[in-house]
Amino acid sequence: AELPATPPLEPGPLLLVDRPGSVQSSLRIALPAVSRTDPDHAPLQLANLIFGGYFSSRWVENIREDKGYTYGPHSGIEHSVAGSVLVASAEVATEVTGPALLETTYELGRLASLPPKPEELEQARQYALGTLQLGMSTQAGLAALTSAYAGNGLRLDFLAEYAARLAKASIDDVARAGARYLAPARAAIVVLGDAERVTQGLAALTTVHTEPKQ
Question: For the domain that residue 68 is a member of, what is the CATH number?
Answer without folding.
Answer: 3.30.830.10
